[in-house]
């Protein structure tokens, strides 16, 4: 995503960059990426309430704990 973010900033320097984090199936990896994605652009909100663990024939989700959502929000509110 860093290369994509750099290209977007070069072409459209005044526009926010979508960090597009929908591909991860690993919750902890997704959470870490989302918390740290401020360096790339704006937070992706594909997952605002539930995380998609598996999108095969029968999608499986898990509820995103409020504490995790607050941690993500805090990362984007700071400095």
Strand order of the largest sheet: 1-2
Low-confidence stretches: none
H/E series, N to C? HHEEH
Q: Provide the gyration radius in Å.
A: 14 Å
Query: What's the helix count?
Result: 3
Alpha-carbon distance between the two ends? 22 Å
Describe the structure.
The protein is an alpha+beta fold. It has one domain (2-77). 41% of the residues lie in helices and 11% in strands. The protein is built from three helices and two strands, in the order H-H-E-E-H. The protein has a two-stranded antiparallel ribbon with strand order 1-2. The model has no long low-confidence stretch (mean pLDDT 85).
Summarize it:
With 79 residues, the chain is of the alpha+beta class.
Give a topology summary.
Layout: H1 2-11, H2 27-36, E1 50-54, E2 60-63, H3 66-77
Antiparallel strand pairs: 1-2
Helix pairs in contact: 2-3
Tags for this entry?
79 residues; two-stranded antiparallel sheet; alpha+beta; 11% strand; single chain; globular
């Amino acid at each position: 995503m860093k290369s994509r973010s750099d290209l977007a900033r070069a072409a459209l320097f005044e526009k926010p960059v979508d960090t597009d984090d929908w591909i991860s199936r690993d919750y902890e990896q997704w959470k870490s990426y989302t918390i740290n994605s401020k360096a790339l652009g704006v937070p992706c909100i594909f997952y605002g309430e539930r995380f998609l663990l598996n999108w095969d024939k029968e999608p499986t989700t898990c509820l995103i704990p409020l504490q995790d959502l607050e941690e993500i929000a805090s990362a984007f509110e700071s400095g």
